[in-house]
Amino acid sequence: KQHDSLVKQHDSLGLEPEPIMASLEVSREGDLLGVNVDDFLADVDSLMLDSLSPESDAEDLDPLTHDDEEEGHASLQLEGNARIGCTLRAVLVLDGEEAEPDDEQDVRWYRCLLDEWDEVGCGLTYTIVPDDFSSLIKAGYYEVEAVTEPVQDRPKPCFTSGSLPDTITEGVAVELTLVSSDQFEPGVHQYSWNRKSGALVDQVSLETCFTPTLKELGHQLVVHCWPVDALGNRGDKLTITSANEVEPASPSVSDLVLCPSPPACCTEIRLECSYHGGHQGQSRCEWWCNDRMVARGFSFTPQQDSAGQILRVVVTPVRDDGVEGETAELTALV
Q1: Band of residue 6 on the pLDDT scale cut at 50, 70, 90
Q2: Distance CA 332, CA 271 (A)
Q3: pLDDT in tens, 134-156
């Protein structure tokens, strides 16, 4: 009876019972033959207590398969799409939280075709190849595993929508916004930037990003975009047209230079500079000596009495629509 009671306790913990009675013969009357009953019961007590102790076989069980609540619950989840060209990622979950395997290489990947499982890789990720088409893909980590649906053909690259900013300014890089389907792994997309002049469309760039120049001023931009996946397959073209025309930038001047330099008395001096910001209008240039304006225009001839004085040149950029920009200055010793 004591033996039966201990065996039931043993079974309730999900442990395999020891073969205690295997070598004992029992008569029909229930007497133990050749065995001292007290010694037998003592042996049973000792064996069962050893089996139930924390240092027993329970320690040797795989924590991923043990059902005891104290050991926790493990599962394997797959992230990604079961499509050719897509990458799957195995995620180990312990007690509802993501965990890292002791060794990533212990995560094995298998392909099932015609009811046969073949190992195809190891590690946390696996990229589906054309040979996997219509097969099941399984990831396994010890006793836990996860299986995909049958692998489908690679998704066609697709841009679902796109847009250009409402305001596009000359000299400022245009930010193109594209939304693509998450069913494919992106590669290097292709672009064609065009300047629209009425019904005429002229290609101006094939780069990913485009900065409008003076030539695009007053025209709309048209962008053709082709999605390309990681394997180089190209999808259908998406065309985006700007809602507004390219606006001129604020007028400015840079790279001010006096020719010849240094300036000399009785020699005509010219100011050269670079203008930016739409089409240039009537920009102004003033020449100053000792805080006294001595001339206007982009050229000046200092007289003998200017020798040894500091010559200051002030330029005010003006756009053709009358908008003025910030002034720029240059000084030199005559």
Answers
A1: low
A2: 12
A3: 899 999 999 899 999 999 887 78
* Rounded distance between C-alpha atoms, residue 13 and residue 69, angstroms: 11
Please tell me the distance from the alpha carbon of residue 177 to that of residue 159, in angstroms, as a whole number: 11
Q: Pseudo-torsion of CA 149, 152, 155, 161, nearest 10°?
A: -40
Least confident of 43-57, 95-109, 247-261, 309-323: 43-57
What gap in Å lies between CA 285 and CA 282, rounded to an integer? 10
Contact 141, 64 (CB under 8 A): yes
* C-alpha dist (Å) from residue 49 to 8, 67, 174, 253, 295: 13, 21, 77, 93, 111
d(CA 13, CA 329): 90
Residue pair 162/178 in contact by the 8 Å Cβ criterion: yes
Q: What is the mean pLDDT of residues 306-325?
A: 94
Instruction: Give the residue from 76, 79, 139, 80 showing the smallest Cα distance to 105.
Output: 139
Q: What are phi and psi of 156, to 5 degrees?
A: -80, 130
Q: Are 75 and 145 in contact (CB under 8 A)?
A: no
Cα–Cα distance, 109 to 132 (Å, whole number): 12
